[in-house]
TrEMBL record:
Protein name, UniProt field: DUF2975 family protein
Pfam families: DUF2975
Record keywords: Membrane, Transmembrane, Transmembrane helix
Highest taxon, organism lineage: Bacteria
InterPro entries: DUF2975
Keyword Transmembrane helix appears in the UniProt entry: yes
Membrane spanning stretches: 7-29, 49-73, 85-110, 122-145
Organism of derivation: Thermomonospora umbrina
Length: 159
């Protein structure tokens, strides 16, 4: 039990650090990077705002996952993870991954039809497969959590 509390505490520290880094990327780095790219390559300057919007929304999806993970960790700490309330936070994670996946597929298709070099489309394809696996894994984990919640509810009814 002590190891679990330490792991939860360490995970929370890293979630805070990750969230802070993402805020910096979202507000400073990504808009500045795409502005610089527009200045360096004026023929692709029209992509500045769409790329900025998509990248900021991707970061927002990750931030949603971090907040939901934080809430689930709180439920683990309070021994309430096997409850219907935890499914709402897992649902939010699944929806955030689905939104990121949809944007990623859109970018993949756009880049795939416009690219001269296969490198970037292949990288985007790999990322799409990775996000697909992550999303499907979360759906399976949600089903397992639902089963465990039902079993715990049944056991508490018997006791």
């Amino acid at each position: 039990m002590v190891k679990e509390h330490r792991a939860v505490a360490a995970l929370r520290v890293f979630l805070v650090v990750l969230f802070g880094i993402l805020v910096v990327f979202q507000t400073l780095s990504l808009p500045g990077q795409f502005a610089h790219m527009a200045e360096e390559s004026p023929d692709h300057a029209y992509l500045r705002w769409p790329m900025t919007a998509v990248s900021v929304l991707w970061v927002l999806c990750v931030q949603v996952v971090i907040v939901c993970t934080w809430k689930l960790l709180t439920m683990v700490k309070n021994d309430r993870i096997f409850s219907e309330a935890s499914l709402a936070w897992v649902d939010a994670i699944v929806w955030a991954i689905a939104a990121a996946w949809a944007m990623l597929v859109g970018v993949f298709l756009y880049v795939g039809f416009k690219a001269d070099d296969p490198g970037l489309p292949l990288l985007l394809f790999l990322m799409t497969i990775g996000v697909t696996v992550l999303g499907l894994l979360m759906v399976v984990m949600r089903a397992l959590l639902r089963q465990a919640t039902a079993l715990r509810t049944d056991m508490e009814a018997v006791i």
